[in-house]
Amino acid sequence: MKAVEVKNLYFKYENEWVLEDINFELEDKKFMAIIGPNGGGKTTLLKLLLGFLTPTKGEIKIYNKPPKENREIIGYVPQHTNFSLDLPITVFDIVLQGRLKKGKFFYSQEDKEKAKETLKSLNIYELKDKKIKNLSGGQRQKVLIARALVSEPKILMMDEPTSAIDPRGQKEILDMIENFNITRIVVSHDIKILLRNVDKIAYIHKKAVIHEGPKLNIPKDKHFCEVELIEFLKDEACGI
With contact defined as beta carbons under 8 Å apart, do 99 and 109 qualify? Predict the structure, then answer.
């Protein structure tokens, strides 16, 4: 089953083309990384996939429907905390927000149980009653992931989920994402994401170069980082 289909996609802001002739498909429950230089169009592509922007030309389908018609099956984790840290709001309150839908204004007991279950599944249940402003960057990011997952989406889209997090927190977030059993699309400037079991890589710099995920035999008991990764991939460079 195709989770995502992008055909002949073009997008421009005013008179400047940001994306040109983007084409790719992603199968159900696969993991895709979107990489590329700053200003290359990565976040714009994600906003188009989410339905926040409308293509200038071309077509996007998420599980065979336009993104705007399928928002209830999309979980989204933004790059930055999208609420004021000064609000006296708890982790549980934030995760519950993921259960709200159009026309729904109250939480049911089922919603509350699902929020607890999601917090437990991400090993952050002990944070339930803490104020969001008192959490570390990595903890806040896990809370945003919990909010996206509590709605039981079929596809999870994330914008720079490991930015501004310490190395230990980055590893924890990437471990978590790698093991989710749903379709995942992650925009990242961090090449370490390619050390994960990604199924497809889109290098975006106005146009797109699509690669199948490299099958790396990563040693578990020794150092392996970006330097070894670049050495491993040097013969597969995009040339852009």
Answer: no
Q: Read off the pLDDT of residues 55-87 as tens digits, 9 standing for 90 and up.
A: 999 999 999 999 999 999 999 999 876 666 677
Residue with tokens 């995502």: 4
Distance from C-alpha of 6 to C-alpha of 4, rounded to nearest angstrom: 7
Domain boundaries, the chain: 2-82+153-236
What does the alpha-carbon distance between residue 48 and residue 18 come to, in Å, rounded to a whole number?
Answer: 12
pLDDT (tens digit per residue) in 135-181: 888 898 999 999 999 999 999 999 999 887 888 888 889 999 999 99
Paired sense of beta strands 57-62 and 207-212, if any: unpaired
∠ at Cα 135 (148, 123), nearest 5°? 55
pTM: 0.87
- Maximum alpha-carbon separation in the chain: 55
Q: What is the DSSP letter of 199?
A: S
Task: Identify the sign of the CA torsion 101, 107, 110, 111.
Answer: positive
Residue 113 tokens, joined:
């149980």
CATH class assigned to 2-82+153-236: alpha beta
Question: What are the start-end ranges of the H helices in the chain?
Answer: 42-50, 91-96, 109-121, 137-149, 167-179, 226-233
User: 55 in helix, strand or coil?
Assistant: coil
